[in-house]
Amino acid sequence: MRVAFGVLGPVVAWDGSGDVIALKGPRHRAVLARLVVARRRVVPVSRLVDDLWVDPPPGAVGAVRTFVAALRRALEPRRPPRAPARLLVTEGPGYALRAEPDAVDAWRFERAVTAAATLPPRHALTRLEEALGWWRGPAYAEFTEEPWARAERSRLGELRLHAVERGAAARLALGLAAEAVPDLDAHVAEHPWREDAWRLLALALYRTGRQGDALAVLRRARALLVEQLGVDPGPALRRLESDILDHARHLDPASGPDGTAERVWAQAAAAYDRTVTPGARVRLESAVDLLRGLAVTGGRGLQEARRHRVAAITAAEELGDPELTARVIGAYDVPAIWARVDDPEQAARVVAAAERTLDALPPGAHQALRARLLATIALESRGARSARGPQAARRAEETARGLEDPGLLAFALNGVFMQTFHRAGLAPRRDAIGAELVALSARNGLTTYEVLGHLIRLQARSALADFSGADGHAAAADRLAERHELPLVGVFTRWYRALRLAEAERAPMADAEAAYRDAAARLDGAGMPGLERGVLPLALLCLRLRYAQPVQDDERTDWGPYEPWARPLVLLARDRRGEAAAALRTTPDPPRDLLFEALWCLAARAAIAVGDRETMRRARTELTPAATELAGAGSGLLTLGPVSEHLDDLATALGHPR
Q: Do 107 and 101 meet the contact criterion of CB atoms below 8 Å apart?
């Protein structure tokens, strides 16, 4: 189980269930806090002694070792006796805390604030509000007087103030000046020397029609600065006062593009509510149109869209109108790239509703609606071992081509793509689908499907070891994502670049590992549980195997759905060959998705190690069609090198050299 650490307030640790871990006394917490400050670097025992005591007692070194031993028992309670620690490790002259990059709230906070600077105001505000919610009090609250914590506390405190002000600026950009005023008022009262906070407060007041209050705020700021610090207000405050007196047009909340967009949105939504009768069926269809846009705005948007989509389908079915229900189901044509569904139960409900609606539509009519329902079935049944998904995909594609409807064809091709995982070695087929999607979408302005086409080709070209081509598709996807505000695209291109490092000749393994951990951080809050859980440990396992390094043995690792294929190799690393062989015998066939070849290669390695000839033969049969591909690279996430190398190893072990 992964341990998380909190230093944005009193120092605390939580276990994988979110329960607080008992850390004993204040010096135990001080050791832990000091190691967090070091950011995974080694802190010598002598430094810990100096930091914990002004006048160290004779047994100080032994006491530090006792504190560390107690912390290890608390943080890794299931570690076998005499097994090396994995989290609080001994290295050289001291100790280091090898926490994951997203396991410490302060580290996550810093990344979130940095990322917010590159996001549009709406997304930046969401990110900053979430990050500020992680604070439980002053950083390292019980160590305010400790010299070793002073610089880090100051840095984090400054970063928090900066985040508050950046969030206020985002609200102003979105036309939410009235919402910004209360927080800014409290902010300047607590931190009166921050000139930018005064500027934002005055601007927010002005934009809410309170010109007098805005000028009064500026006068108050000037008085505090002159009387308490002996300095005059800076140019930004002086210029704002002059602009307010002149009613400068650039202060108008509608003068910026974000403010204008926010006002237009509010006015259009209000007009819709006034004009369209409550309960009108068109509201359901309009809601689905909104959900399509919401699904590509980021993790929270995707989760909300997914949740409300099922509610919209249920509401449509309750009205007893099959055509309306078909439109509601089929209008949600959000492109999908990952071949494992995020919520299997929800996907099954959508498929069932689509099948019922197909049966209820009049025979021979509504061909476009039927094709959309079939494409939905193909998408939502991905990974299922049933003939229905491929059949639905073929029929949707045939209908779309016959109707010469570009948007419908793009949707159908997404369904066809999702049904191209019934065997290994189909990267060329997926590459052709991606190429058609790119060309079709570019001709017809289908931006999200153009991005999808580039991501499909990124995966396929990676599988075919054409990294020059894959690089081009990653860059094209990123350009489109930046231009059209599609933040989830960066999740996939970041993972691809980690894969690229893992396959680069002479690239240090540490660089690739750092890139994978950075990519995994982007998954946090991305709203894609079907992709998120277990993928980082799997990528790191493949990386170590690729670099011929020993498999890391850590009982706390959450392998997610990939545990059956990782477990035999982990047991082998513990020299438990019999248990590994038994585990391999119960390992199921890998799911037919983007990691099909990679998981078979893991099973093959374990089978060779334990002499399981039956699994070796099955792995060889399944992997042979992909002999010219890179194992796992078709996912765009990870790699186990050429499939041909694994086939050679299998042939040798079976006594049948290729």
A: yes
Which residue do the tokens 């009064």 mark? 216
| Sequence-separated (6 or more) residues with CB below 8 Å from residue 228 | 192, 193
d(CA 264, CA 269): 8
- Arithmetic mean of pLDDT over the chain: 89
If you ran DSSP here, which 8-state letter would residue 22 be given?
P
- Asked if the model's pLDDT at residue 354 lies above 50, the reply is yes
Stretch 133-152: mean pLDDT: 92
Residue 398 Cα distances to 97, 281, 374, angstroms: 58, 30, 11
Joined tokens for residue 201 = 């407060």
Tell me which residue has tokens 């307010």. Answer: 244
Q: How far apart are CA 379 and CA 393, in angstroms?
A: 8
Q: What is the pLDDT of residue 306?
A: 82
Look up residue 233 and give its two tokens: 């207000």
Residue 464 clears pLDDT 70, i.e. is over it = yes
List CB contacts of 559: < 8 A, sequence separation 6 or more.
Answer: 534, 537, 538, 566, 567
Query: Which residue has tokens 């650039």?
Result: 250
Percent of the chain topping pLDDT 70: 95
Q: What is the pLDDT of residue 588?
A: 94
Instruction: Categorize the per-residue pLDDT at 255 as very low, low, confident or very high, splitting at 50, 70 and 90.
Output: very low
In the three-class reduction of DSSP (H, G, I as helix; E, B as strand; rest coil), residue 243 is classed as: helix
Q: Which two tokens stand for residue 80?
A: 């076998």
| pLDDT value of residue 540 | 93
Task: Give the integer Cα–Cα distance in Å for 658 and 652.
Answer: 8
CA dihedral of residues 618, 550, 500, 511 (deg, nearest 10): 170
CA distance 106 to 8: 6
**Residue closest to 391 by CA, chosen among 379, 378, 400:** 378
Domain 174-275 belongs to what topology?
A: 1.25.40
pLDDT band at residue 275, thresholds of 50, 70 and 90? confident
Closest by CA to 542, choosing from 641, 609, 622, is 641
User: pLDDT value at position 160?
Assistant: 93
Q: Quote the CA–CA distance of 197 and 217 in Å, as a whole number.
A: 11
Query: CA–CA separation, 469 vs 200, rounded Å?
Result: 47
**Close Cβ partners of 346 (under 8 Å, ≥ 6 residues apart):** 306, 310
Question: Any idea which fold 1-170 has?
Answer: Arc Repressor Mutant, subunit A (1.10.10)
Phi/psi-derived region of residue 247, left when phi > 0, alpha when psi is between -120 and 50, beta in every other case: left
Q: CA–CA separation, 376 vs 331, rounded Å?
A: 9
CA distance 81 to 67: 17
Q: For residues 596-605, give the mean pLDDT.
A: 96
Distance CA 341, CA 165 (A): 39
Whole-structure pTM value: 0.65
Alpha helix (H) ranges present in 208-281? 211-224, 235-245, 257-275
- Residue 133 tokens, joined: 């919610």
Residue 623 is inside which H or E element, if any?
Answer: helix 613-623
Under 8 Å CB-to-CB from 338, ≥6 apart: which residues?
528, 530, 531, 594
Token reading at 291 = 């959900």
